[in-house]
Amino acid sequence: MLGTSGEEERRLVLGVARSANDNAWRERLSGADARAAMAISQSHGLPDVLARVMAARGVAPELAQEFLEPSLKTLMPDPSGLVDMDAAVNRIADAVQSGKKIAIFGDYDVDGATSSAIFAKYLQWLGLDPIIHIPDRIIEGYGPNGPAIEHLRQGGADLLVTLDCGSTSFEAFETAKRLDLDVVVIDHHQVGETLPEVNALVNPNRQDDLSGQGHLAAVGVTFLFLVGLNRELRRRGHFQTGKQPDLMALLDLVALGTVCDVVPLQGLNRAYVTRGLAVMHQRRNYGLTALADVARVSGKPVPYHLGFLIGPRINAGGRIGDAALGARLLTTEDPFEARSIAERLDQLNSERQAMEAVMLEQAGADAAIALEERDPAVLLTGSDDWHPGIVGLIASRLKEAHRRPAFAIAYDQSGKGTGSGRSVSGVDLGKAVRQAVENGLLEKGGGHAMAAGLTVLREKAADLEAFFNETLKEDVETATAHRELKVDAALTATGATLDLLELLEKAGPYGAGHSEPVFAFPAHRVSFADVVGKGHVRATLAAGDGTALKAICFKADDKPHGQMLLEGRGRNLHVAGTLSIDTWQGTPKVQLRILDVADPQKTRL
User: Fold this and answer.
1) Whole-prediction pTM value?
2) Measuring CA to CA, how many Å separate 16 from each of 260, 294, 539, 556, 602?
3) What is the mean pLDDT of residues 185-199?
4) How many Å apart are CA 189 and CA 200, to the nearest integer?
5) Which of 328, 330, 324 is nearest to 310 (CA)?
6) Which of 41, 128, 352, 587 is most enclosed, with most CB atoms within 10 A?
């Protein structure tokens, strides 16, 4: 294991001051973390490596046992602690008991689809037949709109519930008020002080909400709402003649939305995902099972499967196809329909990948020119030829490639652009976008610290870039001043065993805000390396005693660390990455996902 470090600057791992990817490899544990790890290990009788992983993720020794056994019962807050929750619960309980027609208006991403699905399934269990409307990304855009509300009212809706949207839908809800349609909003996006006039607006990120649940995805807030609704209906005696809905059966969808919305896997979110993955493994949801099958998910589901295999396929419907496909898939009780929708989403995902590749090539070239000419703190790229459903993916790729916030914008024939942005840790992009709206630079916009959306006129794009530079330059410079890869411990291929992964699983699930453990493998010989699939590099690493470890380096054949692997056949290299179980062909084996590589001859010991 690695030694502890000083509090000011954590010690280099294996002396790597500059890797292939220009990272310094540093110990994740500070001196204080190392002392906490020792206390965790000694107090609870836990192996050192597990204690180190826990301490590095902020687990206090006295909370170690609670952390290892995340319980919904323990971590679930009283739903009434959220502002307007009781008003929302009572309004919908009234509608349930009187058999009113409820319309659900959800967002077109995974969080919106899962929020809509769990609410709809709950109402269906109660014998109601809710209407689900997911807006078309291109035609309707994000959030409630007047024409859709009019259509829902004409279709018999007595109550409108918006999920993962609605906190800033002032004009749309004026339409609802004119039509005498009650509205309940359940959301989680950041909002200002002024809120639309509705019957209830539940959002842990509204400025007067002190519940401390702002880290929840919309699906997490929706589930919390269902807990409150179920409690109220039980109090009213609604279930005396029938069986209560099984809320726990919905947690597979809660886990999916939580992981895909990239909210921190801490506290209640971690409990949601831990329990939800177990429910998903039971394959009780026809749609989720069918999508997992077409995505070739094997073995026990983990957050990677949700975030990179299942989620993108649901999103593909909202990006370039029918936005309602995801919610339909997740609510269907027909396995044949589930298979048909899953196959359609899989096809759309392949089409999305092809479109993304073309867009990314152009965006990358435009970004390179901008960086050379003016080196902006925030990258803004755009085109008349881009699909607005894919700009978020392009922004994410640019952010990763250039280590700074990035926006990709799709312009229509009138010069109005629909854009999506992604940020780096430490730079609040959502706040900057809201300021740009207030300053008149944007038609509309909003979002989170790490992701934001906007609508901008082409003639204001240059002014917008200048505003972002002035507003965020200092934050971006601070956030990107040091390139480093945080390493939890050093291992050899011999020590990378299934037993170790089973042990590390106790500190999972891993994801946003709760990162996977990264291990450094010192001076392992690259006995094999080649390119497979769409630019992936696979390799076999050998320890000094000859033990082999299979490894994969995704989309890296043209990246520095991928090139070093391919050119390093027969040489010893330092390699860093995360471990997972590969169940291909039915036999579980340990696999290393390589994140970085370094030349031992160029280290600083």
Assistant:
1) 0.89
2) 33, 41, 21, 20, 8
3) 93
4) 15
5) 330
6) 352
Residue 296 to residue 78: CA distance in whole angstroms: 39
A 10 A CB-CB count for 264 gives: 14
Query: For residues 75 and 345, what is the distance between their CA atoms, to the nearest angstrom?
Result: 35
Say yes or no to pLDDT of 224 above 70. yes
**DSSP class per residue in 262-326:** T----THHHHHHHHHHHHHHTT--HHHHHHHHHTT--SS--HHIIIIIIHHHHHHHHHHS-TTHH
CA 62, 68, 74: angle at the middle one, nearest 5? 80
Question: Given the structure tokens 């609704």, which residue do they identify?
Answer: 229
Cα–Cα distance for residue pair 330/522, rounded to 1 Å: 45
| CB-based contact 32:493 (threshold 8 Å) | no
Q: Report d(CA 293, CA 253) in Å as an integer.
A: 16
pLDDT tens, 104-151? 999 999 999 999 999 999 999 999 999 999 999 888 888 999 999 999
> 350-366 burial string, b = 16+ CB within 10 Å, else e?
eebeebbeebbebbeeb
Residue 598 and residue 603: Cα distance in Å, rounded? 8
Listed in order, strand segments (DSSP E) in 458-588 are: 484-487, 489-490, 519-532, 536-542, 548-553, 572-582
| Helix, strand, coil tally for the chain in percent (to 5) | 45, 20, 35
Tens of pLDDT, residues 321-346: 899 999 999 999 999 999 999 999 99
Instruction: Write out the H or E segment, with its range, that includes residue 106.
Output: strand 102-106
pLDDT reading at 525 higher than 60: yes
**Residues 261, 214: Cα–Cα separation, whole Å:** 13
